[in-house]
Each structure stands twice: as C-alpha cells, then as structure tokens.
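Q: Got a minute? One more chain.
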Amino acid sequence: MQRADILGARTFAMRVWLDPDRMAALNISPTQVRQALAANNFLAALGRSKGAYIQVNLTADTNLSRVEEFNRLVVRHREGTIIRLGDIADVVLGAEDYDTEVRFTGQTAVFMGIWPLPNANSLDVIKGVRAEMASIERDLPTGLQARVAYDATDYIASSICEVLKTLGDTLLIVVVVIFLFLGSFRSVLIPVVAIPVSLVGAVFLMQAFGFTVNILTLLAIVLSVGLVVDDAIVVVENVERHLGEGKSPLDAALMGARELVGPVIAMTITLAAVYLPIGLQGGLTGSLFREFVFTLAGAVTISGVVALTLSPAMCAKLLKPGSGERGLAGRISRDFKRLRNAYGRLLASTLSARPAVYSVWLVISLVTIPMFIMSAKELAPTEDQGVIFGILDAAANSTLDQNSHFASAVNEVYRSIPETDFTFQVTFPSSGFAGMKAI
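A: Always. Here it is, folded:
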C-alpha cells in the first residue's frame, strides 16, 4: 500500500470564538488572548526534589484540556481585576478542521482512501484491507458502522471470472468442433492434449517475463485456445493420410512429422509475427498490450513445438490403420471429399471470369480506405463498471455551506435511480466529488 488518506476526520480541538464587543469594552486585543494561550501551553522539567530516602521529579505542566479550564484562563490581571477567557469568548470542544464534509448515502461519515503501489496487486491489497476492516469493526463503539464503500477491484474480479468462464466455454467449443470434423475420439485426443500443454507453457513464459494473471493475459490465453490446436490437427491429418497408404503407425508418424517441419515452423512464425509488432511499440499502446502480445505469441510458439514432438508420438500410439475409413470418421471423410470436389468446381468457374473477380477485388480494396478513415477510433472500448463519478466545481470564493446545498441535490438525483446501492460524497469549500454505486 502506498498511502491511506483520511477524509472527513474530526480531530478534537478546543475552539475559542472571540466576542469583539466584549473585547472592545474590556480593552482586550486578540494578541493578548494569543499570548495567554501560548503561555498556558507549556511543559518542561524543573528538576527534582531529593530527600534522605526518596526523590521526586518536578515538572511544570500548564497544558489545558477541558472547557472549564480554558474558561478560567486569565487573560489580564490588573489592579485586582481579573479578566478570564470565558468573559470575552465562547469556548467549545469541536473539530480541528471544518473545511471538509463527507457523506455516505446522505449520512455523515469518515472515509479512508487506500492508494496501492504502482507495482502492487490490487486484489492482494483489497484482501488486506478487508482483513483489517474486520478488526476495526470489532473495536467500533455502539452505533457506528464500517464498510468498504467503493471497491475498484470488484470490476477486476468480475472481469477475471467472466474471462475464466469464457475460457471454459472456448475449450468445450473447440473440442466439440474438432470431434465433429475428425470424427474419432482417438484423433480428437491428440490436439486436445496439445491445448493444456501449450497453455502451461504460456504460463511458464508469463512467469519468466514477469507478467501477472490479469485481464490482458487471460484474454491472450482465451484467444490462443483456438490457435494452439491448428498445428496438431495438421499433423494428425497428415499422419492419417500415411496410414491410409498402408504405412505402420510409427512410420506414418515419423514421415508425417518430417514433412511438416517446415510448414509448422512457418505457421508458428507467421502467427507470432502478426502480434509481436504491437508489443514492441512504444507509448501507451505498447505498454498496454505488451503482456497480451507476448503471452499469445508464447502460446503459439509452444504449440508449434508440441505439434512436432508430442503430437507425432501420440499419433504413433493412438492412431490405427483404417480407423479413419469407418464409422463417423469415414462418413465425415467422404462428406469432405464431396465438399472439396464442389469447391473445386466453383473455384474453376470463378477463375474463368478473372476480369470480374479482379474488378470486385479492386472495388472492395478501394472502399476499405474511406471506411477505415470514417470509422470511430478509441484506445479501448468503454465498459460499464457499475459506478458513476461526478465532480463538483464551484467558485473560488464559495463556502462549504453553499456547496453542501448543491451536493445534497446531487445526492437526491443519485438516490432517485432505482438501481442505486449507495452514494458517497466528499465536499470542499470550492470543489468536491461524488459517486453512485449500482446494485
């Protein structure tokens, strides 16, 4: 934690409100009052008194602590006449500062703002805050309540939960799609195993680079789920092709892996080259997306290694000759052959009219330029975080009482929204801010 700011604190202080009329009638100046207060706020050691068997330390303590003591304070003593502070002023026990008004859902409160360090984990900080809050609540007197008003990590935690949920959905969809296209549980198992192995490797690279598990790195892992299986699927299909030609599983796996060394490396480098330039940029964009880019590129690189090592070894053990020609796998293979033949006929007829194809391609390419220019641009999309902040900007000569009136009106507007959970306000003489947290 970097620091903790206390807003709205009411540190006890003795308030002395001078009466100008009484002071003028008694010929007392503010300077005399100040000198009397300073003279009666003194603490010093005078020495000690020592006897035969005991000694006592002597101190001079003129410090005043109660209202009655301040009222009896002598301001002037002349010709038998004593003028005390209570004769020319009203003394009350109040607060040291009245320049801040803090309210929580319309009630007077005291806020503590926690500022984490730039390199701190916000989730760890809020865990420590909540643990400390539990101990504070136990020591509060009757009638006082304490709670965490605004927690900025709620949005972070909910976003991470949504990303983890999306990761699970992505894994399920990828497995189902692979099965529907390969048709064999043995064939599906090989690229499915490549997913966790590649993701574990990506997490290892994250730790090596000093990255944390955050929204961007989790987003990279979600996106990489659909990319890390490509190389393994290509290897499985090539090995099955050799098995169909009558080769043994071991020979088919070795030959299929050797044939795909160059293509798999090219695919891996191509995918990594698409993302890496973003992470090498400077400024805010590079700093924001560096973890996302390197995590995604690392997962893709690990998947290429897995496709050339683990996937062929699994193919040699799991795949059997002729398994791709029976059952669901055989039916899918025959359907793909028909689809391939139909696509070939369509492609041949399309290429026979090349001038029209080139014309359409040229028009689409030219239209892309103005569409890109006219498109709205932003660094990141605005998301609903369930909180609204408002700034109160007043004149330089305004007072706290004046701004409190407008702050109360703002609070009423916030409370009129049915989705409001609570509101919080901090008002100063010339400024302030307020917020509303949704349910």
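A: The mean pLDDT is 85.
Q: Perfect, thanks.
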